[in-house]
Amino acid sequence: MEASSSEAATRETLGADSAWHLSWVAETGSTNAELLEAARGGAPPGQVLVADHQTAGRGRLGRRWEAPPRASLLVSILLRPALQPASAHLGAIAVALSAADACEELAGVRPGLKWPNDLVVERPEGTRKLGGVLSESILEGGELSALVVGIGLNVNWPEELPPELTEIATALSYEAGPAAGRAGTSQIDRVALLAGMLDRLAERALLLDTAGGRREVLEDLRSRCVTLGQQVRAELPDATVTGQAVAVTDEGHLVVASDDGTRHEIAAGDVIHLRPTPGGVR
Ligand code: BTN
What we know:
Elements: H1 3-14, E1 21-28, H2 31-40, E2 47-54, E3 72-79, H3 89-107, E4 112-114, E5 118-123, E6 126-140, E7 143-154, H4 163-166, H5 172-176, H6 190-207, H7 211-224, E8 231-235, E9 240-248, E10 254-257, E11 263-266, E12 270-273, E13 276-277, E14 280-281
Parallel strand pairs: 1-2
Antiparallel strand pairs: 2-3, 3-7, 4-5, 5-6, 6-7, 8-9, 8-12, 9-10, 10-11, 13-14
Helix pairs in contact: 1-6, 3-6, 3-7
The chain binds biotin.
Residues 30-32, 54, 57-60, 63, 65, 74-76, 118, 132-134, 150-152 line the site of biotin (BTN).
C-alpha cells in the first residue's frame, strides 16, 4: 500500500471523531526529529507521523534505528501531558503498553515489556526484541512542554535474515504464524496495528494527567514487565550492576538486588536479561 493510501485507510479505521491527526509519509529522516521540530513550532498534541522508511532513524542511548522500507511500523506521537520532567518516561511506557495491547489483539502475540520499554518475546533460547521506544522531551522554563514518543515495531520481515539479527530480534510476522518461530508465516496489516495502538493510546494518554492514572500505567507496566524476577545486568553510565530485578518503583525505576543484598534503584540505562546456564547465568 502506498503511504497516502495507508494514511487514508488508517484515518478511516480510526473514524471521523478520532483525536489523532495523522500523516503517513513514504520517507523521512526521523519521525521523532520531524515531530520535535513541529512541537517547537507550537504544533498541538495528537500529531502522529508514520514513515515507511527512515534514513536517519534514532534509537535509545544515541544509537541508530535501521529498518528496511515497509517492514516495520515507524511512528512518532506528539503528546503534551501534565507530567513533571522526571516522570516523562511514563509517556514512553504508555505507548509501549498500547502497542503491546495492539499486537495481542491483532496478531495474538502477547509481547512482554523489557524494562524500561522494549517490546520483547520470550523464547526458551532467550529474549528477542520486537520493538523499541524512544521518547524525547522539550522543556520550557523547567516544565515539560512536549513529549515526542517514537516506536519502531518489527512487523513484516523477509524470510531470509542473518542469524546475528534473528538471535536478538524478531518480528510479528515470525511470531504470529501457525508455526511461530518460522520466518514469513504471516503478513500483518500495519494499518490495523497502528489504528489498534492509537485507539488504546487515546485512553491511556489521559491517565498520564492524574496521579491515579499514572499509578494505573505503572500497574500495567508491572504486569507486562518480563524483566521482573530475572537475573539481569544493568549497564549504567558509570557502573555495571548484576543481580535480580525485584521491583518497579512508583517512579517507574527498576530495583535490582545484587548478590551481596544491596538494592540498586535504576532510573535509566540498558538492562540485559541473563540466561540461566547449568553452571550459573550468562
Ligand atoms: C530503541 O532504541 O529501542 C528505540 C528505537 C525507536 C525507533 C523509533 S522508529 C520511529 C521513531 N523515529 C525515530 O527516529 N526513532 C523512533
